[in-house]
Amino acid sequence: MEKIPLMVENLSKYYHERKGESVTAVKDVSFRVDQGEVVGLLGPNGAGKTTTIKCICGLINPSEGSINVFGQPVNKRRPLAENVSAVLEGNRNIYWRLTARENMEFFAGIQGIPAREARKDIERLLDMFELQDKRDVTARKLSRGMQQKLALGCALVKRTPLLLLDEPTLGLDVEASIDMRKFILDLARDHGKTILLSSHDMNVVEDVCKRVLVINNGRLVADEKIGNLRKLFGVHSYEIRIHGLLDGSLFREFKDLKVEERDGHTILTGHLSSSDSLYRLMDVLRENRAVVEEIKSMEPDFEEIFLKVLGRGR
Ligand code: ATP
């Protein structure tokens, strides 16, 4: 039977602080990640993403629950199974005094990959990350983006089938962040990697993940395909252009609609949670003899969905 890359069951983690208080960082979280999936762990700052990933790596012990990687239990005594690599907070796993090339050689070496094979991989990774001209520069002299790429290179050179990436685009400029997203997609598509990545940036998750786990205050609040998340919350966004100026109070019952005046027009934008509310809005417009010039249906904004999932919808 094929082993499941990652299985997290009823994971809880409490941190005990000096004054005797305890912080619940993760509470009763369960999920699995299947072969070849790219799954996003999404949540606001302090939600519990890093704690979850650290538990999966075996860097910290769960207070409750269990973690299995390819069927093997992981904990502090048996950290990071040989078939997982993790890139934590961007660049922690690289050695500052080794050059880019030496870092990758080191990680391939500890994995027991023969030098000749490793050399080929390293050249490919240096090309891919555009680090060729920095190959002999020590890691501490690289820019943050380069360090992040190098950290990912060191994780990849180990050729593990499961990758854990904690905030892989944090601190990168827009271009580098887009490159990194493309790169992560390639890893899954062309190299069959299974990837769990955390981010508080919904755009990153939306770009690379097929499925998203939303975590808030340590609890898993959604585990859905991205498309389903949209459907689940039935978010339909519209922009409606009406000739002439209408009194905003007419639309008071539609809490999620913004009313603006633009060039002698009334513009309504926002989302309506069901087709019923769209019909109701049409009634209101008709009753007030409004002349509707245009109704545009817009792609729902992922950020709004995210806020709705967290119960902070506007
Ligand atoms: P961010 O996006 O800000 O990195 P996160 O989702 O990764 O956030 P965690 O770092 O897992 O969140 O933190 C979850 C909660 O646990 C937070 O309330 C945090 O303050 C607390 N926490 C994390 N590490 C410790 C620790 N070593 N001791 C005490 N509390 C901690």
Descriptors for this entry?
six-stranded mixed β-sheet, binds adenosine-5'-triphosphate, four-stranded antiparallel β-sheet, Alpha-Beta Plaits, 2 domains, alpha/beta, Rossmann fold
Task: Report what the structure shows.
Helix 2 packs parallel to helix 4. The model has no long low-confidence stretch (mean pLDDT 85). The strands form three sheets. A six-stranded mixed β-sheet has the order 6-7-8-3-9-10, sandwiched between helices. It has a four-stranded antiparallel β-sheet with strand order 2-1-4-5, with helices on one face. It folds into two domains: 219 residues, 3-Layer(aba) Sandwich (Rossmann fold); 78 residues, 2-Layer Sandwich (Alpha-Beta Plaits). The protein is an alpha/beta fold. The chain binds adenosine-5'-triphosphate (ATP). Adenosine-5'-triphosphate binds next to strand 2 and helix 1.
Give the count of structural domains: 2
Q: What would the principal axes of the Cα set say about the shape? A: elongated
CATH class wording of the largest domain: Alpha Beta
Order of helices and strands: EEEHEEEHHHEHEHEEHEEEHEH
CATH homologous superfamily classification of the largest domain: P-loop containing nucleotide triphosphate hydrolases
Largest sheet: 6 strands, mixed
The name CATH uses for the topology of the largest domain is Rossmann fold
Q: What is the total tally of β strands?
A: 14
Determine the strand fraction and express it as a percent band. Answer: 25-35%
CATH architecture of the largest domain: 3-Layer(aba) Sandwich
Poorly predicted regions are: none
User: Helical region count?
Assistant: 9
Helix/strand-derived category reads alpha/beta
Gyration radius, in Å: 24 Å
> How would you write the strand order of the largest sheet?
6-7-8-3-9-10
Bound molecule types:
adenosine-5'-triphosphate
Q: What is the distance, rounded to the nearest whole angstrom, between the alpha carbons of the first and last residues?
A: 46 Å
Give average pLDDT, whole number: 85
Which percent bin holds the helix content?
25-40%
